[in-house]
Write a structure and sequence with these properties.
Layout (H helix, E strand, L loop, with lengths): L10 H10 L21 H10 L3
Length: about 55
């Protein structure tokens, strides 16, 4: 979200505008940690996938 502030605003107006800004929800990667089970070595998988472009 972008908040556009005019150059000549009072400190009170700036404080009100900054209080209206809501925090951005972050992606919780820890929730998915260890969920994928690989049948092969991840490095071998990566090498195989990269070789498909040749």
């Amino acid at each position: 979200m972008t908040t556009i502030l005019k150059k000549f605003r009072s400190a009170k107006t700036l404080a009100v505008a900054l209080n209206k800004v809501k925090p951005v929800k972050c992606f919780d990667a820890k929730k998915h940690l260890g969920k994928v089970r690989w049948d092969e070595d991840p490095l071998e998988f990566q090498k195989r996938i990269r070789n498909e472009w040749d």
